[in-house]
Fold this sequence. Notes:
This protein is α+β, with helices and mostly antiparallel strands. The chain is built from seven helices and eight strands, in the order H-E-E-E-E-H-E-H-H-E-H-E-E-H-H.
Amino acid sequence: MASYEKIVVSAGLEMCQRSLTVGTWGNISCRNPETGEIYLTPSGIDYKKIKQEDIVVFNRDGKVIRGDKKPSIENQLHLKIYEAREDVNAIIHTHAVYSGAFAITGEKIPPVSEDFVQIVGDSVRCADYALPGTKELALNAVKALGDRKAVLLLNHGTVCVGEDMDEAFKVCDVVEKTARLYIYSRFIGEPRLIPDDDIKAMQEFVKNSYGQDK
Ligand SMILES: [Zn+2]
């Protein structure tokens, strides 16, 4: 199995390839569920140049235990989400375009497609504004995230989470696709929102019956 450092380095390259950010913006982390250690991208280094030894490792108390680079300025955002959500072991903070449009208006991404309600939640909400890199931004994000898989940061970007890095990327894909579809659908008509009861039914189905028998 790949080391956690390697998972974060590869995810940085993938985020760039998928055009989910620009330059050195955005940041990525994962957590080893057995030790509670958190592996985070360093601050301001080109994703193509980040090496495994540049990844900053925090222990479960939020202290840096390995790595001599400065961690991403959004380290509080990552640490507070892990603290609040035991089910989350990977976080991708993007500066993506379509979900970013919602982060600029402060409007939530509503439940308009089945993959979105099954994987991400009943909506993606926008956290109250706070300056980048602050504890206030981290706490606002945790509050607006709730038990969902993504949250928007007002005038800033998007945060997607998952039980592992693959799931966090899947959430990024579905959030971007849904944001894009919703914007397009508003050009041609009035989007229909999926009713609450149907959201619950679809979420139950995915939890209990979807895919091959285990
Ligand atoms: Zn950012």
